Sequence to fold (525 residues):
Amino acid sequence: MRTKNTFLNALANSGSYVINLILSFIARTVFISALSQEYLGVQGLFGNILSVLSLAELGIGTAMIFHMYKPIAEEDEQGIIEMMNLYRILYSIVAGVVTVAGLCLVPFLDIFVKGAPNVEGLTFIYILYLANTVVSYLWGYKRALIDGNQKGYISTLIVTLFMTIQFIAQIIVLVIFRDFIIYLSMQIICNVLTNITIAIKCDRMYPFLQRDKKSLPSKEKRQSIFKNVSAMFMHKLGDVMVNNTDSLIISSFVGLASVGIFDNYRMLLGSVNTAINGLLGSFVASVGNLSVTEDKTRVYSVYRTLNFIGFWIHSYASLAFLVLFNPFIKTWVDITGKNGDDYLFPMSVVLLIVANFYMGGMRKVTLNFRDAMGLYWYDRYKPIAEVIVNLVVSIVLVIKYGIVGVLIGTFVSTVGVCFWIEALVTYKHGFERNVSEYFKTFGLYTGSLIVIGGATYGICQFINMGGIPEVLLKFVVCTLVYNVAVMLVYGRTTEYKEFMERLVGLFEGKMGKELPMMRRLLGVK
Fold:
């Protein structure tokens, strides 16, 4: 059942990603054609400001989901009811805090915008972004129960449905009205409908939730939860400050137009991250269940396989971004009738963007296991150092080096603080193993990326016909050369064999027959 749910979650997340990628790309294309570069900057800037305000969530979601794994696994209905009641109360408080904090920032919006942008109704636009954030806390918490039961594919399908409606409505609004405010309103409406629909579905799937709206976990349990919430808040602080202050610093020191250019790169990264997070995230509930039902040896074995999968996906995506970012963006913007060269960063900036993506990606599986095993208390002070290093380095370097300085700040805080501390905590307190195993594996993986990726990148540089043909041919060459090389290099490892065995097994189970040709092709017995 655990494997089946994981497969369904991964399938739903992958399908959702494809739909999201296609529609978001079409919507962004129409956006660039219909509105000025400053509106792209506003979209990126206000999105990041609201992400910072989401610190009020305190990491409640992650901590609550961890504490629900046990009652879910034991089918303890009363325990689930008490946790969901507490979840509802905490998120109602968060919604109020975010609303007040967001409104308090209104008089200071000019501080975050360098120059006078050609955008009407800037304050009202910000309030719409704030409203969209607040409504997520009012009903969205019920999704946690569905996901915690390893049935995230259900909520994913609902999200995908309304996301499709949202993008189509926004495209129509941009084509007919060219109005950014109506464009944002469509997003708020669909967000509300998504959360209400998931809440209704949750109530129908688990009708026992309706029998008791008042009971809460015991005092001891609440103390344990609040302890973990305080630890998760520290982690959320680091995550938000590192990943969402780049646009704020760029806007304040460089200009809103540069934020707009940066946001195009972030959108493409975000689309791929959505797919990867959906794939790897589909394992989180199963990992939580695994950690309370299996021994550490089995958990560690699963971790190594997932870590290999994470490396393969992120290394390939990093190389593809390095090869395709600028050719793709230039071709894409040229299609809208604007000069694509005006929307490009130099390769030094692109390399740093990709390096930050890779380092962030290589942390994901370790962080998923840390969270699923409830180990976030042990490295609760790490985010403080992370934030200090990131902000100090970014602000000092942005004055002289611009965007490059900001990206260096992110990279330094990741490598110098997060990367090794997270691995140390997970290995020491989760797997009870020496963390040197992790660093050896990371060094091997990254070294192979540099060698294989460097060779692949060099081959792709001979392709220079311009336009869509260049983008497509580089994509095909990059995909084939890199992935075939990875299969040849890692084909004999335990992690590769276990991954492929499970993958082929799932396909055979779905088709009801053996697939010998697929097994031979992938090197599976």
User: Anything to note?
Assistant: The two ends are 24 Å apart (CA to CA).
